[in-house]
Amino acid sequence: MASVVRGVYHIEVYRALCKACGLCTAWCPQAVLEPDAEGYPLAPGLANCINCKLCERHCPDFAIEVSLAAVEKRA
Ligand code: SF4
Ligand code: SF4
After folding, report:
1. Is the residue at 59 inside a domain?
2. Pocket test for ligand 1, best of 49, 56, 65, 67 (most atoms within 8 A of CB)
3. Of 46, 50, 20, 14, whose CA–CA distance to 33 is shortest?
4. What is the pLDDT averaged over residues 41-61?
5. Model's pTM, two decimal places?
6. Is the pLDDT assigned to residue 1 strictly greater than 70?
């Protein structure tokens, strides 16, 4: 069985594309996303993201992107 990894992802919301429809928030199975006062998604539950990409796939405007967080290089 594949293991589920949390806590290593970055979520970018492109506000110029986002229309604050709330679909990404509704589809997230981990309750990662919450709308701000204007309806744009924030990610207060980022540590629980499992990179399932349901938010990305259901965004009609390609306005949200999930990626691996940059890992600081240590010498
Ligand atoms: S990738 Fe999955 S778990 Fe992470 S914010 Fe998007 S829908 Fe939620
Ligand atoms: S689904 Fe896309 S357009 Fe709708 S609130 Fe989320 S990021 Fe914005």
Report:
1. yes
2. 49
3. 46
4. 97
5. 0.90
6. no
Count of domains for the chain: 1
At residue 72, does pLDDT exceed 90? Answer: no
Distance 52 CA to ligand 1 centre (A): 5
Q: What CATH number did the domain enclosing 36 receive? A: 3.30.70.20
Query: What value does the mean pLDDT of the chain take?
Result: 93
Evaluate whether residue 20 is within a structural domain. yes
Record the tokens describing residue 49, joined without a space: 């993201």
30, 48 Cβ separation under 8 angstroms: yes
Backbone torsions φ then ψ of 6, nearest 5 degrees: -125, 160
